[in-house]
Design brief:
The protein is an alpha/beta fold. 53% of the residues lie in helices and 6% in strands. It has a single domain, classed as 3-Layer(aba) Sandwich (Rossmann fold).
Length: 377
């Protein structure tokens, strides 16, 4: 463990001083979660403690003056893939996961992603990759990491959804409304949990994923970072030194948690409010010691199905608004979105990827797309 944690007055242990970091096993830490949930703080701390953020990075700005910790190539890569999949960064559609999954399984994209990772392992055997768009492509990155001989591990940041919404509306001038932003948070977090479940701990053994509350990180970043390092076996974190701890204290600002609004302040539709509150309760259990359990996974599966049902009903009710929007686009000489029957979406996904989605969710998505299968006699 980092000597500054076990004994703040001690220097690096003698055996630590002899360790060559180039000999550490290859590992990629993927920092996932909704934008404005503390992902930049986590990535920045991991960089300070010795992991490598591939260069060049996205420049800091007034919305994040201490930096984003995002590789420029990753952001551009994801932007291109999202555009091709016709998916937004904050997309509330359950169907959007099929679209990004379809793009992620293309072999040229897997090769391109693995080659990029390989080039940065020449700098450091432990990398940290972070981007708010990352969750849409976790399968792509998992495959790429394994192809380079690296172990993929995941840290998902948790911040109360009302605070995430408030931060997006404040810093990104988001005009899509609280209900949309909360729905996109639900869609993102429920599917991120499912996409990383393969790395969950089993039989009491340490796994390859952690869930971190943003508030906990701001309150005691040293303890939280050491927990992340121990759980995911990040060698640079486990062998950090006192100077790195001091740099971390200078980096973390406990006052970063400026949003204090609650779900009640958002005045959401009642079913969306209740579903969001229940999801937040279950996700919080994952951040507790020993909380990443099959019982919580089952509860989150039910919530994910409930969200798909809610979205399906909302889409059916609001169909007139969609038609009106398509007519306005045509009037101005711009084509509307492709008709449902022209989009093959999930049909193009490999069977293994489709099978990971519960049957009831697949049925709901087929209904949304107007592709219900006839009942078997």
């Amino acid at each position: 463990m980092c000597p500054s944690v076990s004994n703040p007055a001690a220097g690096p242990a003698a055996e630590d001083a002899l360790i060559d970091s180039a000999s550490y096993p290859r590992k990629v830490l993927f920092v996932a979660g909704a934008g404005r949930s503390g992902t930049s703080t986590m990535a920045g701390l991991m960089r300070i403690l010795g992991l490598h953020v591939p260069q060049p990075e996205v420049d800091a700005d007034e919305t994040n003056p201490k930096g984003f910790g995002e590789p420029r190539w990753v952001v551009d890569h994801h932007d291109r893939l999202l555009k091709e999949a016709l998916v937004q960064v904050s997309d509330a559609r359950p169907e959007a996961w099929f679209e990004t999954g379809r793009v992620s399984t293309r072999e040229p994209e897997r090769i391109r992603t693995a080659e990029w990772l390989e080039s940065h392992f020449q700098v450091n055997p432990e990398l940290v990759v972070k981007d708010p768009r990352l969750s849409w492509f976790l399968g792509l990155w998992r495959v790429a990491a394994i192809r380079t001989g690296a172990t993929p591990v995941f840290a998902t940041m948790l911040r109360p959804p009302a605070e995430v919404v408030g931060s997006k509306q404040t810093y990104y001038a988001n005009k899509l409304g609280s209900a949309h932003l909360v729905a996109s948070w639900l869609n993102m977090l429920l599917h991120t949990e499912r996409a990383t479940r393969e790395s969950a701990p089993e039989n009491g053994q340490s796994g390859g994923r952690v869930f971190v509350r943003y508030g906990d990180l701001l309150d005691d970043w040293v303890m939280v970072s050491m927990h992340v390092g121990e759980t995911l076996q990040l060698q640079h974190v486990l062998h950090c030194d006192s100077e790195q701890i001091r740099d971390g204290h200078r980096f973390v600002d406990p006052g970063l948690r400026r949003m204090q609004q609650t779900l009640a302040d958002l005045e959401l539709p009642s079913r969306l409010h209740d579903l969001t509150a229940a999801t937040w309760d279950e996700l919080n259990k994952l951040a507790d010691p020993g909380g990443d359990t099959p019982a919580v996974h089952a509860a989150l599966d039910e919530l994910r199905e409930a969200y798909v049902d809610l979205y399906e009903e909302s889409a059916a009710i609001s169909r007139s608004s969609v038609v009106a929007a398509e007519q306005r686009l045509k009037r101005h000489g711009r084509p509307g979105p492709p008709a449902a029957e022209e989009r093959r979406g999930a049909d193009l996904l490999p069977h293994g990827l489709r099978a990971a989605v519960p049957p009831s969710v697949r049925r709901g998505l087929r209904k949304v797309a107007g592709r219900e299968r006839p009942e078997q006699q």
